[in-house]
Each structure stands twice: as structure tokens, then as C-alpha cells.
Amino acid sequence: MNSERLHRVVPQPESKCPLIDKMLGKVEKGMRCLKNALEADTLDSAIDDITNATWYFEDLDGACGDLEDARKACEELRAWGQEWKDKAKEYYDEVQRLEEFEGLGDIVKELEDEIDQLRLQSGEVRA
Fold first, then answer.
1. In whole angstroms, what is the distance from residue 64 CA to residue 75 CA?
2. Whose CB among 11, 53, 75, 83 lies 3.0–4.6 Å from 33's, allowing a Cys bridge?
3. Claim: this prediction has a pTM higher than 0.90
4. What average pLDDT does the segment 3-12 reach?
5. pLDDT tens, position by position, 18-48
């Protein structure tokens, strides 16, 4: 049994986002083409590099849907983290409450000992 199941928390979302990886790859390739255009030896070579860059960036033009999917994935990850944070706070509060009871046990024992001492001093026998 995994920890999510044990603590009744939704499973962890994917740690990598293929949508973001895909868009980053296109931006990196487009930027590389633009840098090549700046360093081109001829005008024709620069135009070719710019044309290639526009292909990568045009492909990103329709990426709004992908960005919304990435936003949803981020929201799921954020919700998962918040659920664990809430669960940790719940457990912490419970531990604090239990520690208070443990301290009360010591106090009760001390009070019982004092009562026994007072009974002995007064000659009363405990039943």
C-alpha cells in the first residue's frame, strides 16, 4: 500500500509535463535558428534560418490549448501538495493533543501520590 492510499490522499500527479517539454523544445529550436540567422554568412542563409525559426514559432501559435492543459496539470500538482500539507497539519495537531494527555498522566500520578501521602498522614486507609 502506498502512502497516498494509506492516508487517503489523491495519487501524485506526473512529475514531468510532456506538454511543457514539447513547447520548450520548439522555443529552443526556434531560438537556435534565430541565432544562426544572426551569424549567417549570406543573406540567403539568414533567410533560411529565419524561415525555419518561424516554423517552430508558428507551431506554438496554436499552443494555447496545450498551455491550458499545462495549467491544469500545475493546479492538480498544487492541490496534491496542499492535500499533503493539510494531512501533515492534521497529524501534527493530533500528536500535540496526545502529548498533552501524556503530560496529564504524570500529573494524575503525582496527585494520587499526594493523596496517598495525605491519607497516610491523617491515618486514613485507602480502600
1. 16
2. 53
3. no
4. 76
5. 778 888 888 899 999 999 999 999 999 999 9
Question: Which residue shows C-alpha cell 495525605?
Answer: 118
Grid cell digits, residue 89:
497539519
**40 secondary structure, DSSP code:** -
Q: What share of the chain is helix, strand, coil (3-state, %, to 5)?
A: 80, 0, 20
Q: Which residue matches cell numbers 533560411?
A: 48
Name the DSSP letter for residue 8. Answer: T
Give SS3 for 10.
Answer: coil
The length of the chain, given as a count of residues: 127
- Count CA within 13 A, CB hemisphere, residue 61: 7
d(CA 81, CA 54) in angstroms, rounded, equals 38
